[in-house]
Amino acid sequence: MQTNKSFPAVNLPPSEFFSGVKTVLPLMIGVLPFGMIYGILAIGAGLPPSTAQAMSAIIFAGSSQFIFAQLYALGIPSIINVLTVGVLNLRHGLYSASIAPYLQKLPNRWKWVLAYLLTDEAYAVTINHYQQDGNLRNKHWFYLGSGLTLWTTWQLSTAAGIFLGTSIPASWSLDFTLALTFIAIVVPALKDRSSIGAALSAGVAAVILFNLPLKLGLLAASLVGILVGLAIERRS
After folding, report:
1. Inter-residue contact 89 to 102 (CB < 8 Å)
2. Does residue 141 sit in the same domain as residue 24?
3. Does residue 9 sit within a domain?
4. 230 lies in some domain
5. pTM higher than the cut 0.85
6. Measuring CA to CA, how many Å separate 43 from each of 53, 110, 163, 231?
7. Are residues 116 and 204 located together in one domain of the fold?
8. Do 56 and 142 belong together in one domain?
9. What is the pLDDT of residues 186-224, one digit of tens each?
């Protein structure tokens, strides 16, 4: 007597790891010049090379590092600089709350490593991967692969920017890759009315409030997007 049993397919850790690497690689087109620009900006702002590189390893958040370097160059008091960076990184709390249910059964050592590797790009590709397949076994290896790829690329591109210094002509306008990278992250994630409303309102607010001092327009636009998104979600 023969019986047919079907078992759910489970990807092995190496397969998940390299799947994460492969999925996030297209975003490196924007991350590479972004990291180089940060390195150039940090040196131009007067930060020592060791400090500029350490920021990439410790803070590991591109937009926050840009803001920090710009405020440092303007001589803004340290407390305001730190608070600005902290507020800007509050979005990682939202990422963490969103992805935590998929990681809650992992040992703490895994959670610590993955929390450190949490970035905009890593979150975007990982949460999409988790939502496509309910089987979570070994899926944390996907997160590790995408996160490590981003971390390595960011460290190397920062070092390249620090080494090159101001030798890259300003006419190259590499900073446009930052906007392209975030567009590539955000647009595929706009799948409902609340997320679309949040993105549109934040974008409009960012343009209107662009000239606010101390880059406060960016913070205000973020708050506008969050409030609009929550309002639409409650109405729905």
Report:
1. no
2. yes
3. no
4. yes
5. no
6. 10, 34, 9, 42
7. no
8. yes
9. 776 677 788 888 889 988 998 998 888 766 787 788 788
Token pair 């960012």: residue: 206
Give the span between the Cα atoms of 15 and 139, in whole angstroms. Answer: 10
**d(C-alpha 92, C-alpha 217), whole Å:** 19
34 in Cβ contact with 61 (< 8 Å): no
147 close to 117: Cβ distance less than 8 angstroms:
yes
Same structural domain, 106 and 195: no
113 & 216 share domain: no
Same domain, 109 and 163: yes
Name the residue with higher pLDDT: 19 or 216. 19
CA distance linking residue 186 with residue 223, whole number of Å: 17
Q: 3-state SS string over 188-219?
A: HHCCCHHHHHHHHHHHHHHHHCCCCHHHHHHH
Q: Is residue 183 part of a domain?
A: no
Domain containing residue 226 = 190-236
Sign of the torsion angle spanned by Cα atoms 180, 181, 183, 187: positive
Contacts of 142 (CB under 8 A, 6+ apart): 16, 17, 19, 20, 23, 126, 129
Q: Measured between alpha carbons, how far is 13 from 20 in angstroms, rounded to an integer?
A: 11
Shared-domain flag, residues 32 and 117: yes
- Residue 180: both structure tokens together: 């392209």
Q: Is the pLDDT at 83 greater than 90, yes or no? A: no
